[in-house]
Specification:
About 30% of the residues lie in helices and about 25% in strands. With about 240 residues, the protein is an alpha+beta fold. Strands 1, 3, 4, 5, 6, 8 and 9 form a 7-stranded antiparallel β-sheet that branches. A two-stranded antiparallel sheet has the order 2-7. The two termini are about 20 Å apart. InterPro entries: RmlC-like_jellyroll, RmlC_Cupin_sf.
Length: about 240
């Protein structure tokens, strides 16, 4: 049984980051982030400033959800999403399964020719973190625009096959990493849920010992202004 003292992540093993959505205009005149999809993690937005929207594409169709301060919006794995910045959009992002998104649980909607193998995909999506800021921005904008090319094709496709093909390609890209993801999930989200189960068992027996093990933690972001998929990120440690 998992000890209630072993799990040290944020409550429920979520990940938190602060996001300033890109204000770079794309070829369609819309400012915003890079369309992508998560395969195992739900994502939530808590809008803290500005104004914008999130465009989503699922097997149920295309939708636009307005985002204003106070909005909480969330979606499940398989939702292709594109953040739109209309006026200084700022968001606190909550990600399920802390550690998995950082380990690659997201696939950008690149055109199919870039999804054929992991090496081709990595070359098209890599941002050199040791490069000057201007160079990192150039790479981030280029991959955003490339993902928009594939995204537009998915939106304009007739019938469900194009989206199904993207799902298959995304799953094939991440398959070699699934064993690593499973271990991260076991140490994180599964351990957090198991700790709650153990606490319920203890309380049922009248055992309050875990209450004496209470701890308080706080931390500041580990990095500021990272070039993410949707904007500049202030991030915390993943575990």
């Amino acid at each position: 049984m998992v000890s209630t003292g072993e799990f040290t992540g944020l409550p429920g093993s979520v990940a938190v980051s602060h996001l300033s959505v890109y204000d770079w205009p794309a070829v369609d005149g819309v400012c915003g982030g890079t369309p992508h999809m998560h395969l195992t993690c739900s994502e939530a937005y808590v809008v803290t400033g500005g104004r914008g929207a999130v465009q989503t594409l699922t097997t149920s169709g295309y939708e636009v959800t307005p985002l204003v301060p106070g909005t909480v919006a969330w979606f499940t794995p398989g939702t292709i999403h594109r953040l739109v910045n209309e006026d200084d959009l700022r968001i606190t992002v909550l990600m399920q399964n802390s550690g998995l998104p950082e380990a690659g649980d997201a696939v950008l909607t690149l055109p199919p020719r870039y999804l054929s193998d992991a090496e081709t995909y990595a070359a098209a999506t890599r941002i050199p973190t040791d490069a000057p800021q201007e160079e990192q921005e150039r790479f981030a904008r280029a991959r955003r625009d490339l993902a928009l090319e594939g995204y537009r094709a998915l939106r304009e496709a007739d019938g469900p096959e194009a989206l199904a093909a993207f799902h298959r390609a995304a799953a094939a890209l991440v398959r070699p990493r699934l064993a690593e993801w499973r271990e991260r999930w076991r140490r994180g989200a599964e351990a957090a849920a198991a700790a709650t189960g153990e606490q319920l068992d203890r309380l049922e027996k009248g055992d309050v010992g875990h209450l004496a093990e209470a701890v308080v933690r706080a931390e500041l972001p580990a990095a500021h202004g990272k070039f993410g998929m949707c904007g500049r990120l202030d991030v915390y440690r993943a575990d």
